[in-house]
TrEMBL record:
WD repeats lie at residues 138-180, 186-227. Residues 400-491 are annotated as: Disordered. Residues 5-69 form the DUF1899 domain. Residues 458-474 have a biased composition (Basic and acidic residues). The gene is CORO2A. The keyword Repeat applies. PROSITE patterns: WD_REPEATS_1 (PS00678), WD_REPEATS_2 (PS50082), WD_REPEATS_REGION (PS50294). It comes from the Eukaryota. This is Coronin. GO terms for molecular function: actin filament binding. Keywords: Actin-binding, Coiled coil, Repeat, WD repeat. Residues 440-457 have a biased composition (Polar residues). Belongs to the WD repeat coronin family. The lineage of its organism: Eukaryota, Metazoa, Chordata, Craniata, Vertebrata.
């Protein structure tokens, strides 16, 4: 009986990490010395925020994403807290709004550009003094607050948890500047909550706790759905793996080896998979990309990043390779998919906090391709900047998946529907601008815009069909592929065909959703006119 090695076909087998050059890093950043096991960094396509070391209260630094090189030591900071800042998170639907929590038992929500619509950060902070006045302050915790997390699909819904063992839900659409009563408080934890993670549509919340238990909760009602208490695995971080209905946790084994474990979200009695990594003591930070099904494991205190490909069938996890560096990271920030360089085949980007050099180093994960054009097979539709629903809709019992967008250059339309933009612009500055437009010509601008979009889309499809017919008529149609001769070739063709079918289904579903949105907009405009 002969033994044959098993080779798995994957387009991400050869993904490699490429660190930025020194001039493309952020140098001279006074990174915090806090021993809290958080990321300490938050990134979006416009700005990078990092918690800094400072005296007399907590602060964090906000830089333009293009502000690389040496950072001015007197650069103004956001310093609305009275204690050390422990965590920061950008609003996923508004690149100008950020939430932060602190040892002073408060959570503050800062709108970095209050004044004239959405100004640029350098203009707002051009006075060379710190930004100290938050847009909203949330007062409900009795002890320091260690984590904040935004709901992935509902607008202006924020979760916070602290050393009072409570998870609190806040509705930021409330008109008060100081909110003292959360919408709901979840009290199922017997110790400090170490991590929070939502599934894709935000209908489930997973938590890891200092009591080494993993819990799955209904975030709206606060009901406990599942609880894991595995003696062989002491979890410190937990993460939902997209729509695979699986959880991944990182922690330590019984012998204090760093370990990762995979769980079925509907049955947390026994893990599906456990794997020991090494004997280091630093916390493992997990990051998951639902578009490529790639999992990244970064260790605090070392410079290594392991990455895997996740599948829904056994053996579930497929190790790809490991990025190694001599510069240890204290924390990590990740760029949302809409901020990646798609023409360079970049599928993920980290921002490593290197405290030994006061440096923030971007690290790009790249799929090697010869062509520098847009590669549709590695960039499916991804979560965009439009919320799927309002806070009131989510609180009333509605669940919706994220509104998807294409990463293809030129396909994104920014600020196309200002009334549905996130942040407080829906009832503030943005709405006043829209009312001035509607008073001049009620509904005409919106209706004409929708009709233009429909005609442009039909025109593009028509030109694409014409170009395809021209290529066939000119004899440029590639010859049909020869039938597969071996079992491996047949398997490869089958996988390619399945991938193409999946991609076409996603495109069709997205087009149907877009058509329904446009139909609703047209009906609303006609109702307003009548």
């Amino acid at each position: 009986m002969t033994w044959r090695p098993q080779y798995r076909s994957s387009k991400f087998r050869h993904v490699f990490g490429k660190a930025a050059t020194k001039e493309n890093c952020y140098d001279g950043v006074p990174i915090t010395r806090s021993v809290h096991d958080n990321h300490f960094c938050a990134v979006n396509p416009r700005f990078i925020a990092v918690i800094t070391e400072c005296a007399g209260g907590g602060a964090f630094l906000v830089l333009s994403i293009h502000h690389t090189g040496k950072v001015d030591p007197h650069h103004p900071k956001v310093s609305g807290h009275r204690g050390n800042v422990l965590d920061i998170k950008w609003n996923p639907f508004n690149d100008y709004c950020i939430a932060s929590c602190s040892e002073d038992s408060t959570v503050i929500f800062t709108h970095l550009c209050v004044g004239y619509l959405l100004l640029q950060i350098p203009r707002c902070l051009g006075r060379q003094q710190n930004l100290t006045v938050p847009w909203k302050e949330l007062q409900g915790h009795s002890r320091r607050v260690g984590l904040v997390e935004w709901h992935p699909t509902a607008n202006n819904v924020l979760f916070s948890t602290g050393y009072d063992y409570q998870v609190m839900i806040w509705n930021l659409d409330s008109p008060e500047a100081v909110i003292k009563n959360p919408v709901r408080t979840i009290s199922h934890h017997s110790d400090v909550v170490l991590s929070l993670s939502f599934n894709t549509d935000g209908s489930r919340l997973a938590t890891s706790c200092k009591d080494k238990k993993i819990r799955v909760l209904d975030p709206r009602t606060g009901n406990l759905l599942q609880e894991a208490n595995c003696k062989n695995h002491k979890a410190s971080k937990v993460l939902f793996l997209g729509n695979l209905k699986m959880l991944l946790s990182t922690g330590n084994s019984r012998w204090n080896h760093r370990q990762i474990a995979l769980w079925d979200q509907d049955d947390l009695n026994v893990p599906l998979l456990q794997e020991d990594l090494d004997g280091s003591s630093g916390v493992l930070f997990p990051f998951y990309d639902p578009d490529t099904h790639m999992l990244y494991i970064a260790g605090k205190g070392d410079g290594n990043i392991r990455y895997y490909e996740i599948s829904s069938e056994k053996p579930y996890m497929h190790f790809l390779t490991e990025y190694r560096s001599h510069q240890p990271q204290k924390g990590m920030g990740i760029m949302p998919k809409r901020g990646l360089e798609v023409c360079s085949c970049e599928v993920f980007r980290f921002y490593k906090l290197v405290t030994t050099k006061a440096l923030i180093e971007p690290l790009s994960m790249i799929v090697p391709r010869r062509s520098e054009s847009y590669q549709e097979d590695i960039y499916p539709m991804t979560a965009g900047t439009e919320p799927a629903m309002s806070a009131e809709e989510w609180l009333s019992g509605m669940d919706k998946g994220p509104v998807l967008q294409s990463l293809k250059p030129g396909s994104r339309v920014t600020d196309s529907y200002p009334e549905r933009r996130s942040g407080l612009g829906t009832k503030g500055l943005g709405s006043s601008m829209d009312t001035r437009r509607s008073q001049t010509r009620p509904g005409q601008l919106q209706l004409s815009y929708i009709q233009d979009q429909l005609s442009n889309q039909e025109g593009k499809e028509g030109r694409k069909e014409d170009s395809n017919e021209d290529r066939r008529s000119n004899g440029q149609e590639p010859p049909p592929c020869s039938p597969p001769k071996t079992e491996n070739e047949l398997r490869l063709k089958f996988h390619k065909q399945q991938e193409e079918i999946r991609r076409l289904r996603e495109m069709l579903n997205q087009r149907d959703v877009r058509i329904k949105q446009l139909e609703l907009e047209i009906n609303n405009v006609r109702n307003c006119q009548s």
